[in-house]
Amino acid sequence: MPTPGVTGTPAGDRDGPSAAAGRDWRRAQAALDDDLRLHLAELVADAADDLAGDFYRVLLADPEAAPLLSHDLVRTRLRASLAGWLCRLFANAPLPDFDTMAAGQRHIGEVHARVRVPIHLVGRGARLIKAGLAGRLAASLDDRDRLVQALIHIETVMDIAIELMNTAFVSDLKRETRNEEAYRLFFLSQDLTLERESQRAALLEWNQTVLLALAGGAHVAGAATGTTLPAIGRSEFGLWFHHRGSIMFEGLPVLDQVARLMQAIDGRVLPDIDGARATGGDIAAGLGALQGAVGEIRFVLKQAFEGLIGIEAGRDALTRTLNRRFLPAILNREIALALRRKRPFALIMIDLDHFKAINDAHGHSAGDAALRRAAETILGTCRGSDIVFRYGGEEFLVVAVETDDAAAREMAERLRAAIAATDITLASGAHIVITASIGIAVFDGHPDYGRLIDAADRAMYDAKHGGRDRVVSAPTSLTCPEPAPATTGSAARSPGPVPAQGAT
């Protein structure tokens, strides 16, 4: 609904949507008289909390929105944030400033993109709030002309705010989509023959473990529900398929085929075999079904691997770990998997201690050698299903899949010990030893990956300040603030290009 006297952006206006929105914003503010502005500000202040509550009650009933808003911290904090947002948009004094307002909307849009809030839900929320304000205004104003003026002001102000928010959302989401595609291309650039043989061996190893369990009659760790036999979904092959194979084969029928076969094995075939064994029945039919399903998995994977075309992309040239520009793509994927599968994952932030001293004492070539050896150690210590990034000059970040706090702590201690035991021989013949300070943060259900990165980062700094060469876990209930919109502080450490080694 246009503001009186305000037309659309002229055809010759080439200064961008933000400038056009700024002109519309200032015209809308100037068109409102002081008495009506005060009345609207008081009405919004009185209604903001109720409107925010109504808004979240509606969204929590939406199956698409509910998983994003089910976390207590999101629900409690966002209700207050939404109420405050409304009050700032319709403040009486000081007069709302466009630049400040626009920066806030852009930050909200960036957070929405990180959390992957569907853009149509934002539009629905705005519609609910505008309807709620319109009803309250109609009950409070007898003068029809002033009522129309106030309704137009609400419509214009909220539309401008949502427009800026969604512009930032789309821009951020496009960037992450490009990175997701580059991340997939990175996986396609690997030695696919080696990857195929490694996972073929992992599948056969799991199959052999099942047969040995049947022969020995013993319970096996990681058993499928309702059976003593090991679940394929929790095997090394199963973890690889869910967390890395799903990237390599994205968009291909193999994903649904293998997932369906694995579900049948864990949900039906293994329980049938175990049940028949427990009652002294014949397990031959069950074993035949098991071997048939395993054979089909091997066949469809072989076909899928043969259909992939690899190109070289996205690897850190020095350490051969992932470039951290892929971090948003993979963390969004892991968060979605964790919410769907109800299993946690952990971030392990690793910072090499006194690294500047290595460069100062031995030169940057020695620093490069240390980084390469540290990366080799980290990659060799992690599981095949885990994902290792070079996060900064001498920092690495491990995404430890399906890992709770205790397992993450154990993995981090293994990494710390392995790094400390790594002997680095320089070209000069000198030997240096490195240690690492390590921080852990376990996913607690909050959908914003920036908060989890901040928690791991803070824990790593606690380890460094506590004496180095140690592991520190973030609190189980994370309380890190949202990353600031400015380019200082934690926002300066958001995923982006890794600096050149010479800068460390």
From TrEMBL:
Ranges where the GGDEF domain occurs: 343-476
Entry GO MF terms: diguanylate cyclase activity
Keywords: Heme, Iron, Magnesium, Metal-binding, Nucleotide-binding, Nucleotidyltransferase, Transferase
Needed co-factor(s): heme
Keyword Cytoplasm (UniProt): no
EC annotation from Swiss-Prot or TrEMBL: 2.7.7.65
Catalysed reactions, as listed in the record: 2 GTP = 3',3'-c-di-GMP + 2 diphosphate
PANTHER family: DIGUANYLATE CYCLASE DGCM-RELATED, REGULATORY COMPONENTS OF SENSORY TRANSDUCTION SYSTEM
Protein name: Diguanylate cyclase DosC
